[in-house]
Backbone:
């Protein structure tokens, strides 16, 4: 039987430590109130995990549709251990949701597979603004969570997993 390379549960341990990590963040300006809340979650989680503020680069793009391209270019520079792509697509009365959310997810997936750098899909795909607010909470006293913080944790975990796999 082979080895079990499972990481411990995420708890800020060495497996998900951010010390010495370089993180790139692409943030959509569309639905900016929400995306800035997601970014707040990312920054707070990375800081708590030990990522130095100077090791986080933030690039703003017009909307979620533009995230895959900038994330792929960022990954291709070799400067980052992981990329986070943050956006928010709210379903409306037109077909824009289907034309934006799906292609953004597909583009991010293809970009990380092509570059072999973790590119984390931190794009909220919600029915309404209220759902977006609940998923981007910036106050611990309010019910909900912050998917930006979850995306940051996923990035740190993926860095650790890939390092383990590559070490053989």
Residues:
């Amino acid at each position: 039987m082979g080895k079990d390379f499972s990481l411990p549960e995420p708890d800020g341990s060495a497996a998900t430590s951010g010390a010495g990590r370089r993180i790139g963040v692409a943030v959509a300006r569309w639905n900016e109130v929400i995306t800035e809340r997601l970014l707040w979650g990312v920054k707070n989680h990375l800081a708590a995990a030990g990522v130095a503020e100077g090791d986080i680069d933030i690039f703003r793009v017009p909307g979620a549709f533009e995230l895959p391209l900038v994330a792929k270019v960022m990954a291709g520079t070799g400067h980052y251990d992981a990329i986070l792509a943050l956006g928010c697509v709210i379903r409306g009365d037109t077909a824009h949701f289907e034309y934006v959310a799906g292609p953004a997810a597909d583009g991010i997936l293809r970009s990380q597979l092509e570059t072999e750098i973790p590119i984390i899909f931190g794009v909220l795909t919600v029915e309404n603004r209220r759902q977006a607010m609940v998923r981007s909470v910036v106050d611990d006293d309010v019910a909900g969570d912050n998917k930006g913080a979850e995306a940051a944790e996923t990035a740190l975990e993926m860095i650790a997993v890939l390092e383990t796999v590559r070490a053989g």
Q: What stands out?
A: Strands lie at 23-28, 56-61, 82-90, 119-126. The radius of gyration is 16 Å. The longest strand covers residues 82-90. Residues 11-15 have pLDDT under 50 and may be disordered.
